[in-house]
Amino acid sequence: MSVSSDPIADLLARLRNASHGRKNEFTVPYSKIKSDILHILKREGYIGDVALDTSKAHPVLKVRAKYVNRSSAIAGLRRISRPGLRKYVGSKCIPIVLGGMGVALLSTPQGILTGQEARRRNVGGEILAYVW
Question: Within 10 Å of residue 15's Cβ, how many Cβ atoms?
Answer without folding.
Answer: 24
